[in-house]
Design brief:
This protein is an alpha/beta fold. It has 7 helices and 9 strands; from the N terminus they run H-E-H-E-H-E-E-E-E-H-E-H-H-H-E-E.
């Protein structure tokens, strides 16, 4: 799609939901330069070890994880609160911020907004992926049409399954807050939106800003 039209029609389609295609979509859309400094918020080494690159990657993991701040081979690892990184990283310390399926697990809307502000503060370029709330399958549990259920029914399920004995899939849903495309545009007002499809079904999207834009 020509850049002139992308300005007014920011949604771009990726038709394969495989992990390799997520990385390929990120590389094609954001176009990080060789030796780019990349902060991966919530990621792991597997993503970056799966293909050849010369990026300088910092993995930022939740401060709640029982792991020390350390260097792990090719990657620096930092434990921190994704929504408050001001004491950890300076503005524009990175060229690119990357995050895969993390923003929906951060809690309420104010925390999601703080996360988005940190992304925009850390780098000009970014790629923030989240499962689509329009998908017929809930991305984390595989439940059919969960987000299409009436809100009262969903709340009832979570209330009845809020105890420690609740199944893992229900505890996952209790800590998941999906974002609509419109909400992603609100949080990342200078971003384009890349939509992922599997067999013609919308399954995910990413707010992204190309490097050097």
């Amino acid at each position: 799609m020509p850049a002139t039209y992308r300005r007014w029609f920011p949604w771009k389609v990726c038709r394969d939901g495989s992990p390799a295609r997520h990385v390929q979509a990120f590389l094609e859309a954001v176009q990080p330069p060789p030796y780019a400094r990349i902060a991966d918020l919530g990621g792991d080494e597997q993503t970056w070890a799966s293909f050849d690159h010369q990026f300088e990657v910092t993995l930022v993991r939740s401060a709640c994880e029982p792991l020390p701040t350390k260097s792990s081979g090719r990657f620096a690892v930092v434990m921190a609160d994704f929504c408050n990184l001001r004491e950890v990283f300076a503005p524009r310390q990175f060229d690119i911020v990357y995050s895969h399926s993390m923003i929906e697990h951060l809690g309420d809307e104010p925390r999601q907004a703080r996360f988005a502000r940190e992304v925009r503060r850390l780098a000009y370029g970014y790629w923030i992926h989240t499962p689509s709330d329009r998908s017929p399958l809930e991305a984390h549990t595989g439940l059919p049409f969960y987000w299409q259920l009436p809100e009262l029914l969903r709340e009832g399920l979570l209330v009845h399954g809020s105890g420690a004995s609740a199944p893992a899939w229900l505890r996952t849903l209790a800590h998941t807050r999906p974002l609509s495309r419109e909400r992603m545009v609100e949080l990342f007002p200078h971003a384009r939106i890349h939509i992922g499809h599997i067999l013609g079904i919308e399954t995910w999207y990413a707010a992204y800003r190309p490097f050097g834009l």
